[in-house]
Amino acid sequence: MSYTIHQAHTKTEFDEITDVMWRTMDGADPSHGIFFPTFGDGPDAKAAAIAESKERIWNQYKYNPASHWIYVREQSTGKVVASCQWRVYDENLFQKGPPTIVAVWWPEGSVGRKFASEVVNQCYTPRTRWMARPHLGLSQMCVLPSHQRRGIGSMLMHWGLEHTDQQGIESFIEATEAGRYLYEKFGYRAVKSVHVDMSRVNVEDEELEEWKELERKFLPLGYTALWRPIRGVQDEDEFKRTWSKRMSL
């Protein structure tokens, strides 16, 4: 099969990308349900969740100049079969320190919003130590199962790494175990594992039952932080010095 790679700019393209994300991630990755929850059962509830995520992803793109969504089409059918988001930051994103993130995509005042906010902040806060410099980040890489192991993931990687090497900046990925092999092929190195830990979170008694149900549904959850130095070049001693210093911050 032949494929072509594109950068998304229109709402129609983003709707196609979001459909691929749902077909790839729903039920396969616990983090999908944290960021794109479905409220209720049945096809109507799922359709509403997909529609909400399409609007949210489109709006986030419009107001974030660092965001670049890349996708792959199968030539014979014209269908989108894979996508990812590359974010290019030419300055320190965390000059004002770690932000506090509220999971506003969950209902206001709900236990789910509190739970999702805690998960997101635990996952996001470590970035402020590692990524406090110009960098390129990758997220939301999805390849439809029927098109995996055909080099499509490598096509998406080449797009981003050409840009990061041209600009001479570092790159970071927060990877699941399923994705590590691909990223390490392109010179990324594991620097830290992060796991969500709810043992120190104070939960109100009246919320505890629902909170525990969310834990059973979405946890365990974590990722491995992967780093690629500028142009992918750094010897072992330099790598150890770099990350010994950053981990001490």
From TrEMBL:
CDD domains: NAT_SF. InterPro entries: Acyl_CoA_acyltransferase, GNAT_dom, Trichothecene_AcTrans. GO terms for molecular function: acyltransferase activity, transferring groups other than amino-acyl groups. Residues 70-215 form the N-acetyltransferase domain. This is N-acetyltransferase domain-containing protein.
